[in-house]
Amino acid sequence: MDNLSRSIRENYLRTLDVIADAARSAGRDPLSVKLVVVTKTQPLEVVRAAIEAGVTTLGENYPEEGVMKIQSLREFSAVEWHMIGHVQSRKAQLVPGNFNLLHSLDSVKLATRLDRFCGEAKCKLPVLLEFNVGGEESKSCWMAGDESLWLSLLDEVAAVIALPNLQVRGLMTMPPLGSDAEFSRPFFQQLRRLREYL
Length: 198
Fold this sequence. Notes:
With 198 residues, the protein is an alpha/beta fold. Helix content is 43%, strand content 16%. It has helices at residues 2-25, 44-52, 63-72, 108-121, 150-161, 181-197, and strands at 37-38, 57-60, 80-83, 101-105, 125-132, 142-143, 166-172. Strand 4, helix 4 (108-121) and strand 5 form a beta-alpha-beta unit.
């Protein structure tokens, strides 16, 4: 396990260096960027090795798998766990009290359920609102690729913001699969314009 942890640490530190260089070249403070290491489908021993290697923020795609790992690794209380995948309404009760941030809030219905479960657990849940700016019909989030739809989003976003147990921290998108950063850049620019509009 020591070799695995050492290997993960080398890759992790190298990635942090790349992020820091990119942040500085963009005029940003490197500390303003957080690396989320995704551990979905990874066995517990690999996740444990990643934590021992210095990883502090972990992302999970599936609520049940994430909760199992969180409960099994409770001794690492300083680790932040992020739910990055789609959360079905029927699994919403698994998120409050277990995850530090939800990256994929995609509907008022889910927001309302999460708010209720947060109230029962007496906790607040930071969330990112997920928008589809690429026009992909397979994604289940707010459609925002066409700017003429933005006016219709205002009431829904306001409804989420009004929920007392959710804290909207920002917006999120997953652009269509592309081969390089230049392909993805326009989708993130569209998301930034949406943020400014909202």
